[in-house]
């Protein structure tokens, strides 16, 4: 295949909790003032990403996998996932609190939805003062049945609320109760899945006066008290000025803090690589192809690329791959 830095057309999602930061800070094009998510790379049915640059402009990500197979995604990924792309890559703007929610693991998602499960991670790009997330239960004394009785008055006694700062990263395995709070701008990496079970939605209603559906029984079934942790110590960073944020069976992510032009060797990596620019900008050069990547943009490097050159004086980049 023609190997170059591939960009896709963002798929913007209006949300009841969305705002304007994806437009004002990340330059996403929309007339809506409630854009909650920008799906940067997606293989989710009904929301398939389409290339917007270079030789494959107009092709879908599914077209590229079918045509180029392991050259595009890597041998192991193609063997495991076939023509399905294994990750969903997003930017997210929480203007108000997201619902308290939980996602099913692979086994439950396959049985009930014929889908992948949803393990994910967040990187906090920016946050307003005192912004928080919900990250699991408050303590071991809280039972899963407590999820049936959450109110605004007792949510802090049931769930673990913590402040966040720019540059924080959080690994959210399937089965962990969680929520992103108001004022958070985040990059999100997750399995290809759009399955969310709502536990509690802050008593809010839509324009017709109706609350959104909750999924309490499915949530309680999906919850795991011994959520698996990511293990960053088992992976080596791709270059000296990066550190691993999370490594799990579904993805590995690192943050690259680039302060000078940097060359990265991918000759031994059997996977596509995704770059999310979370600060600054850079030019990426592969086999003579050059693409500028600005804050809020995302680029995919096909698996058959061996050497990538990043030309910058200041950029922070989330690097993501599988396997």
TrEMBL record:
> How many and how are cofactors bound here?
Binds 1 zinc ion per subunit.
Residues annotated as coiled-coil are none
Q: Where does Zn(2+) bind?
A: 103, 120, 178
Query: Gene3D superfamilies under this entry?
Result: Jelly Rolls
Limits of the Mannose-6-phosphate isomerase cupin domain: 246-320
Which BP terms does GO give this entry?
carbohydrate metabolic process
InterPro entries, per database record = Carb_Metab_Reg_Kinase/Isom, Man6P_isomerase_Firm_short, MPI_cupin_dom, PMI_typeI_cat, RmlC-like_jellyroll, RmlC_Cupin_sf
Q: One GO MF term, please?
A: mannose-6-phosphate isomerase activity
- Active site per UniProt: 198
**Superkingdom of origin:** Bacteria
Q: Which UniProt keywords apply?
A: Isomerase, Metal-binding, Zinc
Q: Which cofactor does it need?
A: Zn(2+)
Question: Keyword Metal-binding on this protein?
Answer: yes
Q: Pinpoint the Phosphomannose isomerase type I catalytic domain residues.
A: 7-115
> Which Pfam families does the entry link to?
MPI_cupin_dom, PMI_typeI_cat
SUPFAM superfamilies reported for this sequence = RmlC-like cupins
Q: Does the keyword Nucleotide-binding apply?
A: no
Q: What is this protein called?
A: Phosphohexomutase
């Amino acid at each position: 295949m023609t190997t170059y830095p591939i960009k896709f057309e963002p798929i913007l999602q209006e949300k009841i909790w969305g705002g304007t930061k994806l437009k004002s800070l990340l330059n996403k094009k929309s007339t809506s003032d409630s854009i909650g998510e920008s799906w940067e790379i997606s293989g989710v049915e009904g929301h398939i990403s389409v290339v917007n640059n270079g030789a494959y402009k107009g092709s879908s990500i599914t077209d590229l996998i079918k045509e180029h197979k392991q050259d595009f995604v890597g041998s192991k990924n193609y063997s495991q996932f076939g023509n399905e792309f294994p990750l969903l890559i997003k930017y997210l703007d929480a203007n108000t609190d997201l619902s308290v929610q939980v996602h099913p693991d692979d086994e439950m998602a396959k049985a009930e939805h014929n889908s992948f499960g949803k393990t994910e991670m967040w990187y906090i790009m920016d946050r307003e003062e005192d912004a928080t997330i919900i990250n699991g239960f408050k303590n071991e004394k809280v039972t899963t049945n407590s999820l049936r009785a959450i109110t605004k008055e007792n949510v802090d006694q049931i769930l673990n609320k913590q402040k966040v700062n720019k540059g924080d990263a959080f690994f959210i395995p399937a089965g962990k109760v969680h929520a992103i709070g108001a004022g958070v701008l985040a990059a999100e990496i997750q399995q290809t899945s759009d399955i969310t079970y709502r536990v509690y939605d802050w008593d809010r209603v839509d324009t017709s006066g109706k609350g959104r559906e909750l999924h309490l029984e499915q949530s309680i079934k999906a919850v795991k008290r011994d959520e698996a942790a990511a293990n960053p110590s088992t992976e080596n960073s791709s270059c000296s000025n990066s550190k691993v944020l999370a490594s799990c069976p579904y993805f590995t992510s690192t943050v690259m803090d680039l302060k000078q032009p940097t060359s990265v060797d991918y000759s031994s990596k059997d996977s596509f690589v995704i770059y999310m620019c979370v600060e600054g900008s850079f030019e990426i050069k592969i086999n003579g192809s050059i693409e500028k990547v600005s804050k809020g943009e995302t680029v995919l490097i096909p698996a058959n690329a061996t050497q990538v050159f990043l030309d910058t004086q200041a950029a922070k980049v989330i690097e993501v791959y599988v396997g």
